[in-house]
Amino acid sequence: MKENIISINHVHFRYPGQTVYALKDVSLNVAKGEWLAIVGHNGSGKSTLAKMLNGLHYPEEGQVTICNFPLKDEFVWDIRRRLGMVFQNPDNQFVGTTVQDDVAFGLENNGIPHEVMVERVKASLQRVGMLDFLNQEPHHLSGGQKQRVAIAGVIALQPDIILLDEATSMLDPRGREEVLRTVRQLKEEQDLTVISITHDLEEASRADRIIVLNKGSVYREGTPEEIFQLNEELIKLGLDVPFPVKLSEILRLQDFEIASNYLSEEELVRELWTSNFKK
Ligand SMILES: Nc1ncnc2c1ncn2[C@@H]1O[C@H](COP(=O)(O)OP(=O)(O)OP(=O)(O)O)[C@@H](O)[C@H]1O
C-alpha cells in the first residue's frame, strides 16, 4: 500500500463569528499518486477544505499533515510549494501577456535561473499539449486551453500534489474533456497526486476514489463504482448522477444485462453496440 501524502484527522473548523461548523470532524487520507475527488452540494464544505489544504484556514481542532509538514504558519510555504492549485475561472488565473510568460511567472517568483526557466516552461507546456501556443495571447485561447496553461504553470513548479478546485466547471464539454485527459496523463506519467474538488459526479467518476461531503462532514467514501450505487441517496444530497449511470440503471430495471460496474459514456455506448441483450 502507498504512503499517505495528506492526512486529515478529526478536523473542525468554523468561520469567525459563526456557530455552525463549516468542517465537522473531517478525517481523510490521500495516498501518494492517487486521484481523489471530493464532491458535495453547495455549502457542503468543499471550498473550505480546499482553502485549508492551501493553508488559508487552520483547523480549530484536529490535525492536517501535507507532504510530512504539519499545517502550521511556519510550514505554509513549504506546503504551498508542494501543492499546486488550479481554480475555477480560467480568465482570473492568467497573469502573463503570452502563454510562455504566464507559465514563467511562478518560476520567476521562485527565483529559478533563466536557462532552467526556459526549459521548464517548454517542458510543462509540452506535457499539457500547449507547446505550439507558446507566443499566443490568452484571449486567443479556448477555456480548456487556458486551464491547460494554468496546469502547466502549476506543474512547472514541480509540485507533488495538484488540487483542481472546480477547475472544469466553467468549461464546455470539449474543454472539460481536454483538461481531464491532461490531468489523467500527468498523474500516470509522473505519479502526481490529484485532488479534484467538484460538484460534478461525471468528473468525479474519473477519480480512483470519491469522498462525498455533506454539511461539513464526510458522508461516504469509496470507489466511483461504490459511490454511484448510492444513486437515490446522492440525488437527495443534491448531486446529479451522471447520465450513463442513470441510463444503465433504467436498462437494468428493464431486465437488460448491463455490467453492474460503473460505465463511462463511451463504455456504455460500446456495451450497447456489442452486447447480446437478454431481454
Ligand atoms: N467567509 C465565510 N464566512 C462565513 N461562513 C462561510 C464563509 N464561507 C463559507 N461559509 C459557510 O461554510 C459552509 C461551507 O461552505 P463552502 O464554501 O466550503 O462549501 P462548498 O461546498 O464549497 O459550496 P460552494 O460549492 O457553494 O462553494 C457553508 O455553510 C457556508 O455558508
TrEMBL record:
InterPro entries (alphabetical): AAA+_ATPase, ABC_transporter-like_ATP-bd, ABC_transporter-like_CS, ABC_transpr_CbiO/EcfA_su, ECF_ABC_transporter_ATP-bd, EcfA_1, P-loop_NTPase
Protein name as catalogued: Energy-coupling factor transporter ATPase
NCBIfam families: ECF_ATPase_1, PRK13635.1, PRK13648.1
Domain ABC transporter: 6-240
PROSITE patterns: ABC_TRANSPORTER_1, ABC_TRANSPORTER_2
SUPFAM superfamilies named among the record's database cross-references: P-loop containing nucleoside triphosphate hydrolases
Domain of life: Bacteria
Keyword set includes Cell membrane: yes
Pfam families tied to this protein: ABC_tran
GO terms under cellular component: ATP-binding cassette (ABC) transporter complex
Keywords: ATP-binding, Cell membrane, Membrane, Nucleotide-binding, Translocase, Transport
Family note: Belongs to the ABC transporter superfamily.
Keyword Cytoplasm: no
Compartment(s) of residence: Cell membrane
Alphabetical list of SMART domains matching this protein: AAA
GO molecular function: ATP binding; ATP hydrolysis activity; ATPase-coupled transmembrane transporter activity; cobalt ion transmembrane transporter activity
Membrane topology recorded in Swiss-Prot or TrEMBL: Peripheral membrane protein
